[in-house]
Amino acid sequence: MKAADGSEDALRQVVVAEALNALSPAHREVLTETVMRRRTVNEAADILGIPVGAVKVRVYYALRALRILLEERGVTT
């Protein structure tokens, strides 16, 4: 259930932001480029100056770490 005043959504945003900040800088930057800025893996690789394969691996492990951090904070999907 969502609170009528949006406080639950605001709280969820804070928790997600805290979880993102808890990630390593490498994981945070790859998620920023691929998820938040909606860049392709190839675009993210060019911007970050790393191989495409490294982007794919980092995204996989970053999402895995983020999922664990969110679960620890009581956020479920």
Description of the structure:
The protein is an all-alpha fold. The chain has one domain: Orthogonal Bundle (Arc Repressor Mutant, subunit A). It contains 4 helices and no strands. The chain has helices at residues 7-22, 25-36, 41-48, 52-72. α2 packs across α3, α2 (25-36) crosses α4 and α3 crosses α4.
Topology overview:
Blueprint: H1 7-22, H2 25-36, H3 41-48, H4 52-72
Helix pairs in contact: 2-3, 2-4, 3-4
Pfam families: Sigma70_r4
Domain RNA polymerase sigma-70 region: 19-67
InterPro entries: RNA_pol_sigma70_r4, RNA_pol_sigma_r3/r4-like, WH-like_DNA-bd_sf
Number of domains: 1
Please give the alpha-carbon distance between the first and last residues: 14 Å
Radius of gyration: 14 Å
Q: What is the H-and-E element order?
A: HHHH
Secondary-structure-based class equals mainly alpha
How is the main sheet built? none
Unreliable spans: none
CATH level 3 topology? Arc Repressor Mutant, subunit A
Specify the oligomeric state.
Answer: single chain
Q: Can you tell me the CATH class?
A: Mainly Alpha
Instruction: Please report which band the strand proportion falls in: under 5%, 5-15%, 15-25%, 25-35%, 35-45% or over 45%.
Output: under 5%
Helix proportion: over 70%
Shape: elongated
Q: How many individual helices?
A: 4
Pfam family, one: Sigma70_r4
Protein name: Sigma factor-like helix-turn-helix DNA-binding protein
Domain RNA polymerase sigma-70 region: 19-67
